[in-house]
Amino acid sequence: MTADLLPDSDARYTFAEAFPQIVWVAQPDGRLIYFNHRWYEYTGISREESLRDGWTGPLHPDDRDRSVKLWRAATKKGKTYEIEYRFRNADGVYRWFLGRALPQRDDQGAVLQWIGTCTDVDDQKRAQEQLAHSERRFRGLAETIPQMVWTTSPQGNVTYLNPRWSEYTGTPPEQSLDWGWVEVIHPQDRESSVQHWTTAVETRQPVEFEHRIRRGSDGSYRWHLVRGLPILDDHDAVTQWIGTCTDIDDQKRQAELLERLVWEQTSELRRSNFDLEQFASVASHDLQEPLRKIQAFSDRLQVKCAPALGEQGKEYLERIVNAVARMRTLINDLLAFSRITLKGQPFARVDLQAVAREVVSDLEILIQQSAGRVEVGPMPTIQADPLQMRQLFQNLIGNALKFHRPDAPPVVRVSAFEVFGEDKKNPIAFELRFADDGIGFEEIYLERIFQVFQRLHGRSEYDGTGMGLAICRKIVERHSGRITATSEPGKGSTFSITLPVHPVNQEFSLHDTRTQADHDPDGR
């Protein structure tokens, strides 16, 4: 039957009038013989203009040749026809359609006719194009930002990793897709990381946690902050997850260091406060009052009874007076020790170059008496207690001058060095060194020399109360630093003091012999 003979209301195709899509029928050779009313409503053209090959008229010019060629190939081979193309509507606007056609055959397999549909997919098509555009923009952004960027399926399987991942881990992206990323997580963090992630996927809630990722260049682990966000559609269903991994290793280690320092400082503070309170009570009353009486009565004996004492009595009395003087000096040193924390001044900018210059000036007589010299290199400006820095320099330079070898005048060298963290850009601390060529000491006594009342030499050889280095350590601890020394008998000593650029808290003391500026590559 030809299109000229087929009535528009042929009963065989009345079912097609109920379809929301455009429905059409073609002869075996591909000439169209029927359209349902949807076609005419959409295109606005008549039946006569549409049948045979007239259907190509509303096609978009860019789609016409491709559509006709594909349709002819399908009818020639008798194969299913499927294509996306644009048709012009009655208002002159083109919309995308999905065209499909199947051949109907007789018992011998010969094609009797073609029945096809055109389904409006313009909204879906544009949505796909918009999604593709958004995907391209996302990929472009993800390729350029310095963080690791990843996406996963709604079930949590990784589907994409930007180049930063491969650059850092040294593994190709395809090796880390799905759940392969777990292999580069620190063994101690894997279980918790998987738990965090699976819980987030189950609850569909944004996730944030920290774990260590292995660096491919050296096998070290660095801390990263992981953040993930579910992307929801209009029905609140998760379409995918998008997330980042941000390197926070430096911040993490600084936070851990601060936390450890605060804990240690708090413990030290409690102990020190108790000791100082006890000592302050004893020193202010129980020791000072009887000492004043001894001194007062000794003075009276010297004035009123000296002639009657005889030479031996005068010697005894002189010893009493000298012992009282040493006792008073000792008590004053103890009080100075106790006041380092309790009576310290607020921190301010202190020019250590000026401090060293003033101390050397104050020690001028001692330097002349020993025929020695003090060499001071460039010094930094730091946040510190000005009076305590002066006391620190005076004790250490004074000790270096005092404990010199009898056969050689003392030479004291004071220098400063910057201490850097992992970034190697900004110093995190300054190391001060006080080196001398004096008598030195055995390093087995290193801890002992910083303790209260500890002396390695008798008073007959070198005067003092054994409090100087204990006071130095107390000052350094208050400034969140550490003090140590290297020495060898007869070859001098070097006292090294590390003072952080940013002290933790001037009201706390610190004694941390474990703190190191170097980075721990294993993250442990």
Q: How would you describe this protein?
A:
By secondary structure, the protein is α+β, with helices and mostly antiparallel strands. Helix content is 42%, strand content 24%. It contains 12 helices and 17 strands. Strands 2-1-5-4-3 form a 5-stranded antiparallel β-sheet, sandwiched between helices. Strands 7-6-10-9-8 form a 5-stranded antiparallel β-sheet, sandwiched between helices. Strands 12-14-15-17-16 form a 5-stranded mixed β-sheet, with helices on one face. Strand 3 and strand 4 form a beta hairpin. Helix 8 packs across helix 12 and helix 9 crosses helix 11. The radius of gyration is 45 Å and the shape is rod-shaped. The N terminus and C terminus are likely disordered.
Structure, briefly:
With 524 residues, the chain is of the alpha+beta class. It is built from 12 helices and 17 strands.
Describe how the helices and strands are arranged.
Layout: E1 22-26, E2 32-35, H1 37-43, H2 47-50, H3 61-77, E3 81-88, E4 94-105, E5 111-120, H4 122-144, E6 148-152, E7 158-161, H5 163-169, H6 173-176, H7 187-203, E8 207-214, E9 221-232, E10 238-247, H8 249-342, E11 348-351, H9 352-362, H10 364-370, E12 373-376, E13 381-384, H11 386-402, E14 411-420, E15 427-436, H12 468-478, E16 482-487, E17 493-500
Parallel strand pairs: 12-14
Antiparallel strand pairs: 1-2, 1-5, 3-4, 4-5, 6-7, 6-10, 8-9, 9-10, 11-13, 14-15, 15-17, 16-17
